[in-house]
Design brief:
It is a single chain. With 246 residues, the protein is mainly α. The protein has one domain. The chain contains 10 helices and 2 strands. The chain has a two-stranded antiparallel sheet. β1 and β2 form a beta hairpin. α3 runs antiparallel to α5, α3 packs across α9 and α5 crosses α10.
Amino acid sequence: MNFYPVFLKEMIIFKRRLFRIGYLFSNMITPLLYLIAFGLGLGRGISIDGVAYLAFVVPGICAMSSMTNSYSWIATSISVGRLHFKTFDEYIVSPVTPSDIMLGEVLAGVVRGMFASSFILIAGVLFGAGFPENPIFLVAWVLNCLVFACLGVISGCLAKSHEDTATFSNFFIMPMAFFCGTFFPLDKMPVFIRVPLSFLPLTHASKTLRAAFLGEGVPAVSLGIIFAFFIILFALGVVVIRRVNR
């Protein structure tokens, strides 16, 4: 349980910010704008493979929101703690292992990602998109948060400045948010773009979440790929933290 103090510290910070109205709305507004603009505006009356576009896009935006919030919260928290407030140094002199630090930070990222993206599911129900029909949705949702929380730890530990985390987000996180099957099927993309996208974790998260949301057959391969990404990135994060401690 040595990871718990790390997790608790992040949750205390999260709790303090949670009661700020501006902070709460800032987490809700962007994904809800996407949902309203694409699902209720552009997508009204449109169906994809016999599925109403609103029902198609809700799980995609949920995947996108859980990705961005799981990643950005942890990456920013660690980079600021390391570079400015030196709070990350407290972990180095404390009796916690790199695995404990990694686990505590990642679990905090999962809570943050699921909290922010839950507003999408609530809005989807209110707008008539329905509710996830398969409980595997929850598994894929958590796994997606785990993957990008791990990525946030790695990015935060390797960052030399705030610009580094922003650069990684602009060139990796943001393109995934739009092109990994969140707003439209990958088969609409040219082959030379579709093939690289098929190797990215959000592509498989969007596919799995959408299948579970619509009650279709969940692609076990995609679920396994997401889990493999988590294992690899968690192990890599432990190595990175160990090097930072040195």
